[in-house]
Amino acid sequence: MERDEAVAHWKQALAELDVPKDSPKRKYVVASVAPAVRVAIAESFGLPPGSTTPGQLAEALRRLGFDAVYDTLFAADLTIMEEGTELIHRLKEHLAANPEYDKPLPMFTSCCPGWVGMMEKSYPDLIPYVSSCKSPQMMMGAVVKTYLAEKKALAPQDICMVSVMPCVRKQGEADRPWHCQSGGVRDVDHVITTAELGTVLKERNVQLPELPDSQFDNPIGDGSGGAVLFGTTGGVMEAALRTAYEVITGQKMERLQLSEIRGMDGIKAASVTLKPAPGSELAGLLKTRCPVKPPAAKPDTAGPAAPLHWDGCTGEGEITLRVAVANGLGNAKKLITKMQSGEVGYDFVEVMACPAGCVGGGGQPRSTDKQVTQKRQAALYDLDDKAAIRRSHENPAVQKLYEEFLGEPNSHKAHELLHTHYQAGGVENE
Ligand code: SF4
After folding, report:
1. CA triplet 346, 352, 358: central angle to 5 degrees?
2. Which of 62, 78, 82, 270 has its Cβ near the most Cβ atoms within 10 Å?
3. Are 414 and 96 in contact (CB under 8 A)?
């Protein structure tokens, strides 16, 4: 069944689930659940945020008829591996002052289609500054239609991939024409929002709060605490720093909760001092470029986004990575204006379009509780606190994906499957 533009995503997903399992037309129908969905779905049943478990949600989706239930947390960890590696690569090339390299600093995150769409339309000059990484949803789709298809001995077109998302913009993201495999097979076939899923569960009498816990399916059903944080403002940055710190310094980051970029402030900022591991390429570059003291700050490029700049050498063989988080598009515009005027400078910037991030997404259940996004955010922080693994690079399922399939982060294959491009002016109908 191809996607029919005139029919809502959720209706087409249900139509796929309603094909009898013994029919030759039945596809292998899989679900993948975004971080912010798991804390808000309880509200569809009149319960407070976070009062049903991710395991109950996995069970509910199985009872709806999905053949397998995966966790988008896996792809959020994968995003950190790819995006963190890209950031480090940009830092190295910046230090090496490579005139051939066309990816400047600062780097902006790319996992929010609301931000990407606004950037393409209103700030096309920023395209080179935005990470080329696909969002976790689209990475998951690409992994399902290749790695998983191979493991299950299925043709990609015989898998129907359904994302459960807090976001109405994720449908347009999945519809982008280049988000597909060869032959035009879509990476993500349909997107259901949290609120739509709540309605469908109730209509089909799947009583989520009464269900037992079950596990997400392997091999792409595990995620770290860092991945959980993708569901709220500041979370992508926090997860990225947990990994980048260890990759750059060779040491574990002791303070896992970065309070400076937690909470609901409109613009949040932090700086992290990193001493590259002795003998590493970054340590060598620092030695060459910053032997005594930092160079005077100067524009990094003559492009239209100048004077965004970087001056991260401390003279002690360390980098001070300056990060910022824009909570909502209004704050993103304010932050970009300040950066372009040179009033502030950052090396890595997270932007999420919805105030509070995905916990406040347009696809979440409606609530009259004015504190609902704070409560959803607190529920995500709690899941991170309790996670057995809290750093993305420690996720064994992601490590196995690289070993068995991708090689290493930012490899040629990883670029083909997990990275994307942007279109100045935006994509029609989004
Ligand atoms: Fe979607 Fe909003 Fe999350 Fe962006 S912040 S991915 S628009 S829910």
Report:
1. 145
2. 78
3. no
Fold exhibited by the domain 78-134+233-373: Fe-only Hydrogenase (Larger Subunit); Chain L, domain 3 (3.40.950)
Average pLDDT in the 78-90 region? 96
The pLDDT tens digits for 6-56 are 789 999 999 999 999 999 999 999 999 999 999 999 999 999 999 999 999
User: What end-to-end distance do the CA atoms of the chain give, in Å?
Assistant: 22
Task: Decide whether any atom of ligand 1 lies within 6 Å of the 365 Cβ.
Answer: no
The C-alpha angle 361, 362, 363, rounded to 5 degrees, equals 90
For 4-53, where are the alpha helices, taking DSSP H only?
9-18, 37-40
* Token duo for residue 343: 């009033």
Q: What is the pLDDT of residues 111-168, one digit of tens each?
A: 999 999 999 999 999 999 999 999 999 999 999 999 999 999 999 999 999 999 999 9
Ligand 1 atom closest to the CA of 114, numbered from 1: 7
The Cα angle at residue 80 between residues 105 and 364, in degrees rounded to 5: 105
Supply the pTM of this predicted model. Answer: 0.94
Quick check: 149 and 97 in contact, CB under 8 A? Answer: no
Query: Ligand 1 in contact with 357 (CB < 6 A)?
Result: yes
Please state, in angstroms and rounded to a whole number, the distance separating the CA atoms of residues 53 and 13.
23
Rounded to whole angstroms, the maximal C-alpha distance in the chain is: 71
d(CA 148, CA 159): 10
Cβ–ligand 1 contact at 106 (below 6 Å): no
Mutate which of 133, 194, 264, 352 for ligand 1 pocket (most atoms within 8 A of beta carbon): 352
CA distances from 423 to 122, 132, 170, 187 (A): 11, 12, 17, 19
